[in-house]
Amino acid sequence: LGYEPEQLAGKHFSVIMHPDDAALVNRSKALSGYRDKSVSAKDIPRFFDERRADKRKTLGLEVRLLQNKTNASDNEYVYVEVNASGLYIKNIGREDAVFLGTIGIMRDITERKRAEAAIQQMAFYDSVTGLPNRTLFHDRISMALAHAQRVTGMMAVLFLDLDKFKLVNDSLGHAVGDQLLKTVADRLANCTRKGDTVARMGGDEFTLLLPVIKHKNDAEEVADKILEKISHPFVIDGNELMVTTSIGIALYPADGNDIDALLKNADIAMYNAKDTGGNNYKHYTKMLSVKVSRRVVMENELRQAIERKEFFIYYQPRININTGRIVGVEALLRWQHHELGLVFPSEFIPVAEGAGMIVPISEWMLSTVCVQGKTWQSAGLPAVRLAMKLPSHVFQWRCFMETINRVLQETGITPSLLELEITETAMMRNVEVTASRLSMVNALGVKIAIDDFGIGYSSLSCLSSYPIHALKIGKAFVHGITVNPHVESIVKAIIAMAKNLKMSVIAEGVETREQLAFLKEHQCEE
Length: 526
Hints:
Layout: H1 5-8, H2 19-32, E1 39-40, H3 44-47, E2 59-66, E3 77-90, E4 96-108, H4 110-124, H5 134-152, E5 155-163, H6 165-172, H7 174-189, E6 197-202, E7 205-210, H8 216-230, E8 234-236, E9 239-241, E10 244-252, H9 259-275, E11 281-283, H10 286-305, E12 311-319, E13 326-337, E14 341-343, H11 345-354, H12 358-378, E15 385-389, H13 392-395, H14 400-411, E16 418-423, H15 424-428, H16 431-444, E17 447-453, H17 460-465, E18 470-473, H18 475-478, H19 485-500, E19 504-507, H20 513-521
Parallel strand pairs: 10-11, 13-15, 15-16, 16-17, 17-18, 18-19
Antiparallel strand pairs: 1-4, 2-3, 3-4, 5-7, 5-10, 6-7, 8-9, 12-13, 13-14
């Protein structure tokens, strides 16, 4: 311990013992009948080995001893294992025995205790964030349930999933992703009260346990606070990242009476929050279970859909307004599920993104569209532009350019006939990566269009700096033509702006002669 003999000689042992452990020793002595005073001779058989009447049975404990502060290394205390015995002597002819002191040995077990602590940390805490893991969270919720059943009567479980987290991992790497998770964990911890538990379940999923609430509004207040904290920009390794979260709330006892039911229903509510755009929270309702069961079926079946050849593509003609000729086609992905029937992209694309299947599906679609274009050319048909919408996940994918190059080489399609459509939102996400990818796509000769222009959000300066070839007016605007003067003004402004920037303009969803006449009058091309 680093002491000189004269520093300790004659002092009571407790002066170098951790106060908590000193109390433990006293309790152990009391429980064993060990006294620091004379004992009755009739009790001697309880305290003494029959063969050696001068020593009681050994008391084993683990305690912390204070090091000499001038010599202390990493820790103020060291752990020791103590095996000690009380030392007595009988009073001849008397009914008592005299306590002389304690004799024993001790062993330094500091390294063992550190190893045990490390094992405990690995077993019950997440290695990336330091938060409780799934195992410890289950233990905490089990205790909270027992307490709620006896005392409080109400508690809440929140299930969180970061929106578009996979995009960060795929575009910036796992090191940045892990650092983002740590920062998110810190913000979540700052949103909770004493006694609440924040845990990481794995990936980008977190859970919160609110063991004591009086009303569902209590859970909503915590959810609101989380949404506000997470929405602030994250700066990781020089990258400014905007991340949001979707939160599902399940209440005891209304939404479940056990751990599995509460977690499952909070998870279901979280997916509902994600499906409605993310960055919000939803309470569990029984109606959600039906919707989520369909989602689970789709998620499981998506992995076999390509192998089963259940995906197919419709080709929507693109018409030149002045000549009436077909000048291109837009590829529209559909899924003919063997049980669910025809499933549209608006339903299965979000599921594919969440399940990590959007990249292989997009690869299949890109290859299929290019093969079809080459087949039409080989059949002697006029060359037409092939347009396909690119999910934002794919556009940020690190192997994106490698995949496009490979498909162009394998199919032999002329690059200028391929047009990739991206949304304004995708274009504005991670601007530096987007600008680099767009430049590389443009260098290949592949065309780029902004889909549903005006529906999302964008920086107009990007239109002049990015290699954009076309703007697509969404059908929501087109349907407002001849109905809403404000919409007409917006459409005219989009067409004029595109013309000034030397871009083509394509109108989607044209369904009436009046809409067509308006677009032709204002020189929309397709």
